[in-house]
Amino acid sequence: VTISPPTGALSMAGIGTAGLGEVLGLFRTRPSLTRADVMQQTGLSRSTVNQRLDALLAAALVVPSGEGSPTGGRPASRFAFNCDRGVLLVADIGATGMRTALCNLRGEVSAEVERTIDVASGPQRVLSAADEMFGRLLAGAGHTAAEVHGVGIDVPGPVDFALGQVVSPPIMSGWDRYDIPGWFEGRYDCPVLVDKDVNAMAFGEQRSAHPAVGQLLMVKAGTGVGAGLILGGEVYRGANGAAGDIGHIQVTVENADIEPVCRCGNTGCVEAYAGGWALIRDLRAAGHDPATVDDAVNLIRTGDVTAVRLARRAGRIIGHAVADAVSLFNPRVVVVGGQLARIEEQLFAGIREMVYRRSLPLATRNLQIVAATLDTRAGLVGLALLLADGIFAPERIGSLLQRA
Ligand SMILES: [Zn+2]
């Protein structure tokens, strides 16, 4: 089970917890609040606010803060979310590398470690490596596994969000339907959130660089091509978690002799032309010898004629899919990240050309197409924030109080 259903919430409802989750949510978004602030912002009565605050103080979810702390017996006048009541652990798993971090309960990263991995070596090896890094992060900060309130994992493949399972991933051999939360059972007594890497990236970019933007499309152009959607300020995953898979939209490309076969098994997909792996294939066919996507990017940046031509074509093909997404969702901002975003000039020109040519003026009137700001840390940063939101969702208030 991922972020579990509110097992405690129903039984708590009868003894008066209405609005408790919302009051906690208010504290999570403000540095500190007085009783009067809570009354004003929730519309709850003074006695209800006092009861809710007592419950949150008893559970150490909220603590006295700043002036008026209980020195000499005076009751505190200001209170704050207790972001050090425990810790969160997150692992951003890529195809060839993994970043892990220790975070406070606001989802702010306090320490991180990275290492190379091969995601195709299978879930047991990769998750063992992640857990070994978690252990070092906890020990380094003087924490124990009992203090972990949530574990977050993101992966470069399709995820059934409700089950926490990777489903038919093109590049993650051995991970199909693997029970990731189940692997962590017995190691940590807390919920385990599993998500697609680009969803975490989208959330990280939105929260840190575009906090006022409710509608954002994050395009990851790396080895593969994918997208994450933020609608109404929240990650939109669709019915099964498959939303945003623009890398496997089929495109028709002029002057292409044959439709290339994609990693998904179909032909003519966006990423079969424009993904980093496809660029490596085409550069090799043209006589170059890039071993990695970074090699391909560096070759393009040297200005090699064939490489630049392929990069421009990749930009237009990704732009074709982005234009479709813009027509469907009308985002305010399109953020482009991933290794290929480093060839900004060629890639962005192609994306802009196609989006402005194919989308209606109303959809592009206020549209911004920008580069990602968090670079390779977007997934890690976003995953920690997503996990914190999941752990402290109002419907989990029952479980949170039981844990106290
Ligand atoms: Zn495909």
Task: Write a brief structural summary.
The chain is 40% helix and 17% strand.
Structural features, described:
- This protein has helices at residues 9-13, 20-28, 35-42, 46-58, 123-140, 180-184, 197-209, 270-274, 276-285, 293-301, 305-329, 344-358, 361-364, 378-391, 397-403; strands spanning 62-64, 79-81, 87-93, 97-103, 109-116, 148-155, 159-160, 165-166, 192-196, 216-221, 225-231, 234-236, 333-337, 368-371.
- The longest helix is centred in the last third of the chain and has 25 residues, at 305-329.
- It has a five-stranded mixed beta sheet with strand order 5-4-3-6-9, with helices on both faces.
- The radius of gyration is 23 Å and the shape is globular.
- It has 15 helices and 14 strands.
- With 404 residues, the chain is of the alpha/beta class.
- The structure holds zinc ion.
- Zinc ion binds next to loops.
Features:
15 helices, binds zinc ion, 5-stranded mixed beta sheet, single chain, globular, alpha/beta, 404 residues
Topology of helices and strands:
Blueprint: H1 9-13, H2 20-28, H3 35-42, H4 46-58, E1 62-64, E2 79-81, E3 87-93, E4 97-103, E5 109-116, H5 123-140, E6 148-155, E7 159-160, E8 165-166, H6 180-184, E9 192-196, H7 197-209, E10 216-221, E11 225-231, E12 234-236, H8 270-274, H9 276-285, H10 293-301, H11 305-329, E13 333-337, H12 344-358, H13 361-364, E14 368-371, H14 378-391, H15 397-403
Parallel strand pairs: 3-6, 6-9, 10-13, 13-14
Antiparallel strand pairs: 1-2, 3-4, 4-5, 7-8, 10-11, 11-12
Helix pairs in contact: 3-4, 7-14, 10-11, 11-12
Bound molecules: zinc ion.
